[in-house]
Structures are given as structure tokens and as C-alpha cells.
Write a structure and sequence with these properties.
Helix content: 25-40%
Strand order of the largest sheet: 1-2-3-4-5
CATH topology: Transcription Regulator spoIIAA
CATH class: Alpha Beta
Number of domains: 1
Shape: globular
Strand content: 25-35%
Radius of gyration: 12 Å
Structural class: alpha/beta
Order of helices and strands: EEHEHEHE
Length: 103
């Protein structure tokens, strides 16, 4: 799992690469929480272009970050999910709380 980020125009964009599963969940949580609590931004976009796999543990990581951002009064969005990740978001209902953007 690789995670990188940048802030452009008040948007924290986080790019995830690899697999988000039980073996990478703790790393992802720590890295994401650090980014979400130590940066100034208006909204967060998860770019999932290179996320190859996500299991139920990964869904939990995403939901946990959504809840953290909600407490901070910030919005979370997702963009460029692969076909596999898009299907997981649809089936799990994640798109109901985390909208997909095309930007």
C-alpha cells in the first residue's frame, strides 16, 4: 500500500495505490489520520485510480475516515475508482455517504 497526497485549491487529494485490506489497514489508518488532522483543507478527495483491491477491513478504514471528517465538518469524496472498487462502493452502499466526483 502506497499513499500520497497534495493540497490544491483547498482540496486535500489522497492517492491510494495497491491493496486496502487487513494487512495494510493499520498503515492506512495511521497515514490517513495524520493527513486529515495535520492539514488545512475544505474537502478531501480519495483518488482510487490505482487501488487494486479492498476488502471489508478496507471498507471499515474508509468509513472511519468519513466519520472523522464529519466530526471536523469536512466532506469526503471519491474519484476514479477501478471497476472492482466501484462495484464494492456500490454494493456496500458507500456512495450513499461518500459521493463520487469526476474531477
Amino acid at each position: 500500500m502506497e499513499i500520497s497526497s497534495s493540497i490544491i485549491n483547498d482540496v486535500l487529494e489522497i492517492r491510494m495505490r495497491g491493496e486496502l485490506d487487513e494487512s495494510t489497514a493499520e498503515f492506512a489508518k495511521v497515514h490517513l489520520d495524520n493527513q486529515l488532522t495535520h492539514n488545512r483543507f475544505g474537502k478531501v478527495v480519495l483518488d482510487l485510480t490505482q487501488l487494486a483491491f479492498m476488502d471489508s477491513t478496507g471498507i471499515g478504514v474508509v468509513i472511519g475516515r468519513y466519520k472523522l471528517l464529519k466530526k471536523l465538518g469536512k466532506q469526503l469524496f471519491v474519484k476514479n475508482p477501478t471497476a472492482t472498487i466501484d462495484k464494492i462502493f456500490k454494493i456496500s452502499g458507500l456512495y450513499e455517504i461518500i459521493p463520487k466526483v469526476n474531477k
